Amino acid sequence: MPDLILCEFFKLKRKPLFFAASAASGLIPLGCALFLPDFHTFSSGAEAVDSMMSSLFQMSATLLLMPALVVLASNLFFEEHDNDTLKNIVTVPVSMPALALAKIFLLLLFSMAFMAAGGLINLIILTAAGWEPTGFWRLFFVGIGQGILMWAGAMPCIFLVVALNRSYIISVIIAFFYTAVNYIFGTSDLFITQPFGLNPGTLLPGSLTFRWYFQYLDFSDPGAEMARLLERISSSFLNAAQAFGTAGMEAFVFFILIALVYRRQGRQKG
């Protein structure tokens, strides 16, 4: 398995665009720092950290990471089809589920690296602006956790891309539609206040991640609007066991489906 993961990683070395995609996680926070006047009017370093990391969690993770994961997945799973090398891999022999697992694990590493890079870019921006990064490392590791949740949440979309086995254009369309749905669900009171259980507010990554990470932001001195928001949603927050347990079960189920489809495709090529 480690050899398969290394092989998949070495393939990415020929595609520097995907390494650049990790750094793109800092684009939205950077834009906020450059163009929003409020960035220089924070009352403390803790408030500056909170605002910058919020933009990473609420915007970059949903609007950039989700489509990046799906597009990267389509590249990883379609590459053997495009180069007509899948039948050679099958004759090595290489277990198709193991190969699928290596690709999925690489996507997990990418998702965590995306959030880590965004967090470190935020740290550089905050330090350059002269703010004391109070509470940064706690939110940095929350961001890594969100990367894991978003990876698990992308699995249904990745399964659909692998199962359809069509083209990169279709993959991009699926990715952006799924991203839009998750962003809407993750910002709607209707979904983020649903009880924990089998419902969209729990199962979709946009609302699931929001209900987990939002409680780690600094609310020591909330304004009137934030206080009203907290009053509405605080009872719907999820603890780590609920959030990661749900995401883990979703990831496991959809990985099994992906492995079955990928094995069938390998048999057809073989």
From TrEMBL:
One Pfam family assigned to this protein is ABC2_membrane_4
What keywords tag this UniProt record? Membrane, Transmembrane, Transmembrane helix
Q: What residue ranges are annotated as transmembrane?
A: 17-36, 56-78, 104-131, 137-161, 168-185, 240-262
Q: What is this protein called?
A: ABC transporter permease
Species per Swiss-Prot/TrEMBL record: Candidatus Eisenbergiella merdigallinarum
